[in-house]
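Subject: Methyltransferase domain-containing protein

B.,
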Amino acid sequence: MTLVSPRLWEQSADWELDDAARDRATAERFRRPTTFGSGGSEPYAQALQSDDNVLYLHGNRADADPGTPTRVSTMHAGRWSAGADAIDRSLLCGVAGPVLDIGCGPGRMIQAAIDEGLDALGVDVSPTAVRIALAAGLAVLQRSVFDYIPLAGTWATLLLVDGNIGIGGDPDALLDRCVSLLCADGVLVVEVHRDPEHDLAYEGTLHDAAGHTSDAFPWAEIGVSALRRRAARVGLVQVAEWTRGGRSFARLARA
Ligand SMILES: C[S@@+](CC[C@H](N)C(=O)[O-])C[C@H]1O[C@@H](n2cnc3c(N)ncnc32)[C@H](O)[C@@H]1O
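Prediction pasted inline below.
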């Protein structure tokens, strides 16, 4: 029995070509170097696999001596590997599925979404993070958010948690990419810097206490007021903002 007529079959081959061309165009449009904590002696991968996992994010101005970071912040990778806490879980209050966790790490927010009865997928460039998430039985794709993502335009909830608005070092490009992934009435939940006006892009390197150092990668930090201004440029409006346990968040939707 033929389920697909020859004509339709030929046409579907054309559609596939169109899809492939569209995917290439999307990848070109959004392509950015994407290597949070990777390269060098892989401190991010090391931290995900060890108990001693405090990381130091150095921010280097492009024109500064690479040996002298202009700022340093401390990150606890143990939080990424642990289960979601009450604040993490509150981000999912009232949201709909399917949920796409962008830069999901080992996947605590995917598990939290599943616990809420939501369909959820994670996407992350780190092979180690993806391996850990897959071993936990979570649905995760190893790729950049700027590469092909299935179901683009149909995601009801996008998550950018724990500094992930910094991915690619260009919040405008990331917000634009999020718009292309969201469904018409979808929401984007973003963890923001606690200073509302903070708006900083820089070359980051990740370090650990044992001296492991990553290659440089583009990163950014942004507070809620700065996010609101940038979001407006890609047709998003802020529908909520809140602070809990010293962490700040915003929820955005299409204008
Ligand atoms: C600060 S960690 C946050 C991990 C996770 N969101 C959490 O809260 O547990 C940033 C994550 O973003 C991932 N990442 C960086 N660039 C990415 C990209 N272009 N696409 C997808 N993931 C990316 C990194 O591999 C890393 O796992």
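The two ends are 48 Å apart (CA to CA).

T.
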